[in-house]
Structure formats: C-alpha cells, structure tokens
C-alpha cells in the first residue's frame, strides 16, 4: 500500500518535527534506569507524544480559536518535556551534550508552534 498524506496535519512542519522529536526523546527514555519505567520515562514519553497529538487533534476541529487552544496545550506539553529533560540530566540519565541538543530541539519547536499559532 502506497502511503499518501490524507490529513492536513500530516503536512504541517510543526507536526512532522514533533513526531521526529518524539522518537528521539523516546529512544533516550528507553535507556533510563528500570526504576524510572513508570515514573520519569513514562512521563517524558507521554508529554512528548502529547505535543504531536494536540497538534493533530486541534487541526481537525473547524474553528481557529479551538486550534489555537490545542496548540497552547502542545506548548505546555513541551514545557513538561523540558522539565523532564532537566530531571534526566540532573539524575545523570542523559549527558549534558544530549540534554543540550534535545533542549534546543524543544526550544525551536516551541517557537515554531507559537509562530504558527500567531499566524492563524
């Protein structure tokens, strides 16, 4: 079966970047200690997944104010991810270099979402 984008959110760069960042962060969370499986690992994965989920859910709704609201949820989820990244770095689950790269990715995505939200 040939894959073609059918949903408009699949064409949004913010959704594509959120999906990519989600996979990067989930891969790192998989290496956290087993004791964090139901704590920090789960929390950061749920938060980063919420970013793309809110972008897609908001894009389906017909009203622009509703879409803006869901983009706001996506930004808040990114803030949660950043806090989890700080915790992971402080607990030595990720290196400073990995933290810096993921932190920058989160910052860029946040700015892209805010800019997109403003233009709606």
From TrEMBL:
Pfam families: 23S_rRNA_IVP (PF05635)
Gene3D superfamilies per the UniProt record, alphabetical: 23S rRNA-intervening sequence
CDD domains for this protein: 23S_rRNA_IVP_like (cd16377)
Taxonomic superkingdom: Bacteria
Record-given protein name: Four helix bundle protein
């Amino acid at each position: 079966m040939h894959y073609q984008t059918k949903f408009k959110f699949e064409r949004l760069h913010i959704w594509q970047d959120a999906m990519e960042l989600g996979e990067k962060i989930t891969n790192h969370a998989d290496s956290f200690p087993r004791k964090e499986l139901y704590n920090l690992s789960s929390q950061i994965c749920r938060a980063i997944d919420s970013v793309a989920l809110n972008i897609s859910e908001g894009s389906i709704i017909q009203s622009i104010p509703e879409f803006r609201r869901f983009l706001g949820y996506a930004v808040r989820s990114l803030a949660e991810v950043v806090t989890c990244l700080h915790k992971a770095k402080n607990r030595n689950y990720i290196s400073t270099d990995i933290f810096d790269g993921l932190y920058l990715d989160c910052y860029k995505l946040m700015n892209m979402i805010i800019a997109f939200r403003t233009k709606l």
